[in-house]
Amino acid sequence: MTPTSKIPPYPKSHIVAASGVAALLSLALLVFPSREVEAKKTYLTPEMENGTDSVIQEKDDLRPDSLIGEEGDSPFARIETPETEQADAEQETKEKGPAEKLANNPTPAPVDPNLKKVRVGNGDTLSTLFAKVGLSTNRLHDILESNKDAKQFSKLKIGQELQFTFANDGELQAIRSQLSDLETISLTKSAKGFDFKRDLIKPEMRDSYARGVISGSLFLTAKRSGLSHDLTMDLANIFGYDIDFALDLREGDEFELIYEEKVVKGKPVGNGQILAARFTNRGKTYSAVRYIDKQGIASYYRADGTSMRKAFIRTPVDFARISSRFSMGRFHPVLNKIRAHKGVDYAAPRGTPIKATADGKIAFAGRRGGYGNAVVLQHGKTYSTLYGHMQGFAKGIQTGGTVKQGQIIGYVGTTGLSTGPHLHYEFQVNGVHVDPLGVKLPMADAIAGTDKKLFMQKSQPLMARMDQEKATMLAMNKR
Ligand SMILES: [Zn+2]
User: What are the backbone dihedrals phi and psi of residue 325, each rounded to the nearest 5 degrees, phi first?
Assistant: First the structure.
C-alpha cells in the first residue's frame, strides 16, 4: 500500500497570522554580553604534519579595547558590518602598489608621469573616470567598440582602481584593474585596437587552525579568531543539529577548527572548506570531520564516523509560526464525524520556500482534493511526509523523482481547503500518523564499509592536530 492512499480527507481548521520570529532570532544570534576575548589563530606548517613542534604564531587577534568598548549600549551597535569594499580596496592598492617595494624607505615612491590611477567613487561611470585622466567620451567609445570584452571594464565597484598607462606622446597604452586578489583585467593597445586580457592567480591552499572562546555573539568571537563571516556560517551550519545557536550558546563555550585558507604570496585571500571542527556547548563537545565519499558527495561526520545529522529536520519552513497543532480529535456529535488534525500547520507568507525534511522519493506531487497542491515523500520503508496547500512546486519536483534533505520542493500557498497561506505538514511512521513535533527522529546513517576505514585515516590525524594546536595555544597564553 502506498502512503498516498492513506491520506485522510482534509480537515478545515486553518487560520493564519503573520509573525516576527525571524527578526528575533537573527538578533539573538548577534547579541550577547561581552567581556573579554581569548581567541587566536595560527597556521600549520607542513613540518607540523610530520610531528615537528613548530607553530607559527602569525596573528594575535586580541583587538584594542577601543573596538570592544564601542559595542557598549545599543544591541544594534554589535551587529557587524563587513569592512567596506572601499577600505579593502585601499588596503589592496597600498600593498600592491609601488609604495610597497619601498616600504622601508620613508620617502614616497617616484611618480610615474605616464601612469594615472583613479579610484571608482559613488556615481562614477567609465566616462567620468576617463574624464578624470583627460580622456574623452569619444575615446572611451572607440575602445569599447574595438573589443567586445572591453565592456567588462564598465562593471565598476566602488573602491575599484583603474590604472591608465600613457606613452610619452600622451597616447593611451593600457588600462588595468585588479578586480580581486585573484583577478586582474587589462586592455592593451595593439595594431588592431585594444587586446583584452584576464589574469587569474591560482591561490595556494594551506590548512589553518583557529580557536575561540565565546564572549559576545558567535559572530563577534569568530571574527576575533580571524574567521570570515562565511566561515562562521559554515561552522554554525555544521553544528546546526547539535546546537541551537539562538538559544543554547553560552559565554565560555568554545570552538576550534581546521580549515583551508587560500593564500597568494603569503597573504590570505579567502577560505575553502572547514576540514574538521569541534564545538563545546555547555560542557558537551561535538566533533565534525569533512569527508568526500566514493560517490563524490561531501558530508560531515562525527570524528568516530557516526552521522552528525538527523535523518529529518524538524521544521519544513524556516521562521514560520505554528498555527495549528496535531490532534487525533474527537467525535463531533452534530457533524457525526471525527474531527482530527493529523498534521501541523505552519503559517508563513505566500511563496515561502518549503523544504523536504529528509532525503526521499517523491511518491506523489500534484493536486489532491482538500490538500490542494501536495507533495508526499517516502523516506525508506518506514517514514513518509506530506506537504499541502502549496502555491506551486519547485522546479523538477514530480512523482517518481528524488529529493535531498533541505531541498526546496515548493512554496507556501493556500490551495485546496484552506483559509490562508500556510503549510500543512504530516508525518507517518509505518503508515500511522504521528505528531511531527513529538516524534523521536532517527539519526542519519553512519559512514560504512570501506569508506569507514578511509574516513578514520583522515579523521584521527585531524583530531590529533587540533589537540596539539590547542595545547600549544594554551601554553603560550600562560607564559
Ligand atoms: Zn493542517
Answer: -95, 175
Distance 418 CA to ligand 1 centre (A): 8
For 358-407, what is each residue's pLDDT tens digit?
Answer: 999 999 999 999 999 999 999 999 999 999 999 999 999 999 999 999 99
Distance from residue 9's CA to the centre of ligand 1 (Å):
11
391 CA to centre of ligand 1 in angstroms: 15
Number of helices (H) and strands (E) in the chain: give both, helices first.
10, 25
CA of 310 to the centre of ligand 1 (A): 24
> Which residues are in the CB-under-5-Å shell of ion ligand 1?
343, 345, 424
**pLDDT tens-digit map of 158-212:** 999 999 999 999 899 999 999 988 899 999 999 888 999 999 999 999 999 999 9
Predicted TM-score (pTM) above 0.85: no
Cα of 343 from ligand 1 centre, angstroms: 6
**Full DSSP string of 82-147:** PPPHHHHHHHHHHHHSHHHHTTT--SPPPP-TTEEEEE--TT--HHHHHHHTT--HHHHHHHHHH-
